[in-house]
């Protein structure tokens, strides 16, 4: 089953990924085929698992204390562009358009 | 466009339609509402040219910033104004290798709010990722609770004045669909001149409670009243300070219209509403816009619109291309959130790791509705008075403080609080805390009045003088301006005699007649 052009465009838009050439699209289709094998398992009446910890209560609760922050310099160190301690990004959702 | 209950707006839209070409019903007789409220409480206005009436439907999505020291999943500080990117941890900036750690206080705030809104608290709730790309969302997803939120199926009761008369109040209820915990995003500052966006992540990761209200409301006034009551509840609980001006309370309205008996119409989402007053305006404008669009043969798009407060209208928002696909998935770094009650309390667990719903329930403060009832019962004031007292921050406490310090009956004191003090405060845009007249001074003044040492008129004069805040006591002002009532019979006689003596001619002329 082929992946339609609409789905492809939609995926590229959502994931900011450029499939570029037919090889990329082929690889995508093979990946989908591989994952489709999951459908062979009968999951009727089985609760989806979202944590291997299952019912063992394990979500740690932190006290409401201020323990972090105040590291502006460190955070901005890797920014390609900055303006007076602000990060700089392209306007709006411009980064969605293809390069 | 005054939102005078549901009646006012629809009369306008209706009259505008009647003003067009072709035969139409004449304007409604003065004073008679062109709108009848149906049994459900929704306005059912007459359409132009005899078309079927419209039922507006309004739902709300409210984001309340949780009042906590640190953020929902990290230990950086929560504070309104701070140097850009100074309240940001590595996790908030989404640097690789960081993980979310849930803040206990945020969970308690959500449980308190859920209980206050009569919700069922889910003992097991889950966290999910909601994906979308935006400059102020460094991770590319927001951690929220889409599948199983922390609280569901509640209700909120609020009151409205009919026809703008405070004496006729009606109670309405809106269903609360759910309350969920989620992260706030950072802030984007758009620099159109240089075609760039400046990003400040101080707000990124702050805890939010999203309160979803079912579409049980029918106009701007109802929406505003519901949000106002929610605001008071949140402030009473302390779970959120809910100051809209500081972005601690954000409201998005979902609006649609349909004919009675037909399915709900296409809804639009209205954003960028910055005050409760604007909320009423935005909702009423959007309802009217949709009605006019549909009556002119147009269609309503399922879109997001922004409210322009300067123009008083809603406009389509840019950057909203088609329906968003958020690709929800369970948050793999957070196991389910488990809450306990008295019955299910685990035996051998660290107290700090356990949240007991019943324990929180027992410690809930009196909600506004209960406070109002108590004020009415204890002091014999009218229900509408209790609303005004609670509506103004600190006014109820001021009132009670004055009552304690004076012999004057609360029923009389309330008049001085609501008519005199409050109008002064409003005139000078002051809060109760900023009042130059303290409860002590006012009580002092009322005592003079109660002991009949001054007249009511004189008391008002003294209050005007006290308002100047020059530090004089009521008694000093009375003496200064000679406002004291004379009690001595003899003194009164002397004065009257002096007047008569001074006007001999007039008296002579009057006596025979």
From TrEMBL, chain A:
Q: Which GO biological process categories is it annotated with? A: glutaminyl-tRNAGln biosynthesis via transamidation; mitochondrial translation; regulation of translational fidelity
Task: Tell me the keywords, alphabetical order.
Answer: Transferase
Query: One Pfam match, by short name?
Result: GatC
Q: Care to name a GO molecular-function term for this sequence?
A: transferase activity
Record keywords: Transferase included?
Answer: yes
Entries under InterPro entries matching the protein? Asp/Glu-ADT_sf_sub_c, GatC
> Which Gene Ontology cellular component annotation is one that this UniProt entry carries?
mitochondrion
NCBIfam families in the cross-refs: gatC
Identify the PANTHER family for this entry. Answer: GLUTAMYL-TRNA(GLN) AMIDOTRANSFERASE SUBUNIT C, MITOCHONDRIAL
Mind telling me what this protein is named? GATC amidotransferase
Q: What organism is listed for this UniProt entry?
A: Chaetorhynchus papuensis (pygmy drongo)
UniProtKB/TrEMBL annotation, chain B:
Q: Where is this region: Disordered?
A: 1-34
- Keywords tagged on the record: ATP-binding, Ligase, Nucleotide-binding, Protein biosynthesis, Transferase
InterPro entries attached to this UniProt entry: Asn/Gln-tRNA_amidoTrfase_suB/E, Asn/Gln-tRNA_Trfase_suB/E_cat, Asn/Gln_amidotransferase, Asn/Gln_tRNA_amidoTrase-B-like, GatB, Gln_synth/guanido_kin_cat_dom
Q: Where is the Asn/Gln amidotransferase domain?
A: 397-511
Work out whether the entry's keyword set contains Transferase: yes
Domain of life from the UniProt record:
Eukaryota
> What family does this chain come from, according to its entry?
Belongs to the GatB/GatE family. GatB subfamily.
Which PANTHER family does the entry mention? Answer: GLUTAMYL-TRNA GLN AMIDOTRANSFERASE SUBUNIT B MITOCHONDRIAL AND PROKARYOTIC PET112-RELATED, GLUTAMYL-TRNA(GLN) AMIDOTRANSFERASE SUBUNIT B, MITOCHONDRIAL
Q: What is this protein called?
A: GATB amidotransferase
């Amino acid at each position: 089953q082929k992946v339609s052009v609409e789905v492809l465009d939609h995926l590229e838009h959502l994931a900011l990924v450029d499939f570029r050439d037919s090889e990329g699209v082929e690889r995508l289709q093979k990946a989908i085929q591989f994952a489709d094998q999951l459908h062979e398992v009968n999951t009727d009446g089985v609760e989806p698992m979202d944590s291997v910890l299952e019912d063992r209560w394990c979500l740690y609760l932190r006290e409401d204390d201020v323990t972090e922050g105040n590291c502006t310099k460190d955070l901005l160190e890797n920014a390609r562009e900055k303006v007076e301690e602000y990060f700089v990004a392209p306007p709006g959702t411009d980064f969605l358009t293809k390069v | 466009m005054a939102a005078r209950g549901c009646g006012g707006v629809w009369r306008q839209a209706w009259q505008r339609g009647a003003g067009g070409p072709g035969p139409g019903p004449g304007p409604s007789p003065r004073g008679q509402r062109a709108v009848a409220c149906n049994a459900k409480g929704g306005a059912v206005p007459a359409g132009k040219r005899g078309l079927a009436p419209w039922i507006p439907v309004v739902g709300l999505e409210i984001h309340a910033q949780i009042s906590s020291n640190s953020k929902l999943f990290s230990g950086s500080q929560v504070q309104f104004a701070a140097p850009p990117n100074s309240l940001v941890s590595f996790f908030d900036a989404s640097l690789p290798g960081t993980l979310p750690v849930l803040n206990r206080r945020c969970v308690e705030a959500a449980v308190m709010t859920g209980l206050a809104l009569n919700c069922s608290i889910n003992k097991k709730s889950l966290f999910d990722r909601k994906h979308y790309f935006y400059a102020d969302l460094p991770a590319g997803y927001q951690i929220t609770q889409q599948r199983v939120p922390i609280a569901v199926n509640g209700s909120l009761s609020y009151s409205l004045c009919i026809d703008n008369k405070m004496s006729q109040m009606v109670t309405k209820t809106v269903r609360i669909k759910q309350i969920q915990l989620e992260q706030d995003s950072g802030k984007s500052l758009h620099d159109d001149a240089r075609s760039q966006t400046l990003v400040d992540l101080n707000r990124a990761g702050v805890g939010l409670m999203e309160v979803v209200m079912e579409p049980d409301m029918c106009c701007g006034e109802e929406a505003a009243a519901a949000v106002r009551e929610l605001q008071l509840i949140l402030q009473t609980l302390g779970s959120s300070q809910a100051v809209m001006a500081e972005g601690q309370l954000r409201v998005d309205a979902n609006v649609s219209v349909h004919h009675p008996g037909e399915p709900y119409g296409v809804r639009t989402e209205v954003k960028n509403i910055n005050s409760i007053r604007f909320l009423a305006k935005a909702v009423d404008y959007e309802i009217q816009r949709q009605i006019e669009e549909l009556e002119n043969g147009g269609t309503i798009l399922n879109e997001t619109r922004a409210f322009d407060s300067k123009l008083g209208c809603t406009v389509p928002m840019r950057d909203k291309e088609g329906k968003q696909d958020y690709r929800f998935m369970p948050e793999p770094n957070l196991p389910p959130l488990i809450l306990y009650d008295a019955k299910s309390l685990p035996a051998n667990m660290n107290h700090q790791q356990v949240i007991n719903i019943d324990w929180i329930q027992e410690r809930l403060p009196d909600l506004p509705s209960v406070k109002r009832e108590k004020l009415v019962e204890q002091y014999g004031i009218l229900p509408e008075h209790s609303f005004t007292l609670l509506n103004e921050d600190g006014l109820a406490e001021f009132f009670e403080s004055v009552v304690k310090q004076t012999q004057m009956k609360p029923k009389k004191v309330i008049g001085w609080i609501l008519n005199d003090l409050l109008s002064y405060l409003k005139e000078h845009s002051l809060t109760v805390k900023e009042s130059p007249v303290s409860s002590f001074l006012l009580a002092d003044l009322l005592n003079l009045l109660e002991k009949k040492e001054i007249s009511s008129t004189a008391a008002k004069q003294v209050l005007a003088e006290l308002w100047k805040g020059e530090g004089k006591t009521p008694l000093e002002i009375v003496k200064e301006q000679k406002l004291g009532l004379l009690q001595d019979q003899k003194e009164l006689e002397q004065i009257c005699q002096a007047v008569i003596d001074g006007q001999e001619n007039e008296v002579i002329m009057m006596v025979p007649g």
